[in-house]
């Protein structure tokens, strides 16, 4: 334990140390601010570049309507130019997806009818399929037009399947399973499919066998008396 004498000694020592210390006072340094005004610089005069109507603030602006009209004209011209550019872009994009010249050449076929004798059927290749063009005789025409349409599986009169009575144009693909029929064969003198025994007449109509439909008639036209264009 610390006795009374020791306590008195410690108190005296502490006071002595405190008396020897001097307080420190922080003094802020004095600063002087100098502001330099550049009065020797001149402001450029932009009056030659300004409109005469806006040089004086107190003057009424007479060119406001003119500037509005110019702005409207500029916006309208930009809209027209943008629409034309969009049209050109769309046209170029669509034309890039169109068929090429060689594909278009195969899309149509031109046939000289004078090369096909009466009573014969010629076969051509069109769009990767056989095309039958038959030069029918007068007896074949009369025979096909005398058939009762109500008795046919796929009822079609002969008149709606031909544009000219003497010319029959059909795609040579059997409507059953896609075989190629034989011309001038079968029980009805038209076409016969050797795969499953379908018989077509001289109008390309199914008369016997498993085929459900008549032979397809493509789009064709006669540009002149001796030419046929299919496609």
TrEMBL record:
* Domain Rieske residues, every copy: 134-229
User: What EC class is this?
Assistant: translocase
Entry-linked InterPro entries: bc1_Rieske_TM_sf (IPR037008), Rieske_2Fe-2S (IPR017941), Rieske_2Fe-2S_sf (IPR036922), Rieske_Fe-S_prot (IPR014349), Rieske_Fe-S_prot_C (IPR005805), Rieske_TM (IPR004192), Ubiquinol_cyt_c_Rdtase_Fe-S-su (IPR006317)
Q: Cite the CDD domains for this sequence.
A: Rieske_cytochrome_bc1 (cd03470)
> What family does the database annotate?
Belongs to the Rieske iron-sulfur protein family.
Kindly give any further remark recorded in the entry.
Answer: The Rieske protein is a high potential 2Fe-2S protein.
Record protein name field? Cytochrome b-c1 complex subunit Rieske, mitochondrial
Question: Which organism does this sequence originate in?
Answer: Tabanus bromius
